[in-house]
Fold this sequence. Notes:
There is one protein chain. It is built from 6 helices and 12 strands. 32% of the residues lie in helices and 24% in strands. It is of the alpha+beta class and 280 residues long. It has helices at 53-64, 80-104, 154-160, 167-184, 215-234, 267-273; strands spanning 3-8, 12-18, 20-23, 28-30, 34-39, 43-51, 111-119, 125-129, 135-137, 144-148, 192-198, 207-210.
Amino acid sequence: MTYCVALCLNEGLVFLADTRTNAGVDQIGTFRKMTIFHQDRERFFVLMSSGNLAITQAVKEILLQGEIFNGINLWNAKSCHEAATVVGSAVKKVRERDFEDLQKSGIEFNCNLIFGGQIEGEKPRLFNIYAAGNFIETTPETPYFQIGESKYGKPILDRVIRFNTPLNLATKCVLISMDSTIKSNISVGLPLDLLVYEKDSFNLDKLITIDEDNPYFEMMHRIWGEKLKEVALSIPEPSWNGSKRSISIQSPSKKLGTVPVHKPRSKSSSRAKRPKGTNK
């Protein structure tokens, strides 16, 4: 499995991906899920993937080779939307080639991609591309996408991330999101690839790989765990006797009762209750 998360904010973009592909008792696989396409100060794109590794690698290879779809590839696309269409076309090509063979083997065509970046003269944009090759784009109201094992890292994003969230705070939040996922799911793990991009800079200097020796990630992991425990302990415990109205857990609504045990009547009791004059 995997976990990737990306944000499209007023100040720029944030991308974070783990590198684990499978985790068993005696076998752990690691593959990079983030690919960067960069052309001087004209354009840059980031592709992050989850799903069947053979499928996503085939899509990535088509894009790296610069294959043309309707006269367009990533290097001559005039907008990020056109570039996302190229990625979708690459997904469709792999699907057309492999779908039937995968189906015969009982394997699902599983491919989910996050694709984003900036072309000169256009604002940064971010897309979620599906296995059918279609896609959606972030909005100021919904400024992030997750793929892979997303449920554990979603709460911090929903509570904190807004379109105007500063990049540094957003970076902290995606790392907490990843840490929460790693804590709860063995199929997601270090090292992590992180890219923080400032709008209109076309500068990729904030691109790092985070492993278990990274001092910031280790500090954040420790403090986040401690603070969660502190918060849980600081919340008042529920009152069952109603002595404190503000923390009473008793509800004035109708209470749920227990389900009565059904005991079938014995034949003797049925006969005893039968009205006089009725047949046996």
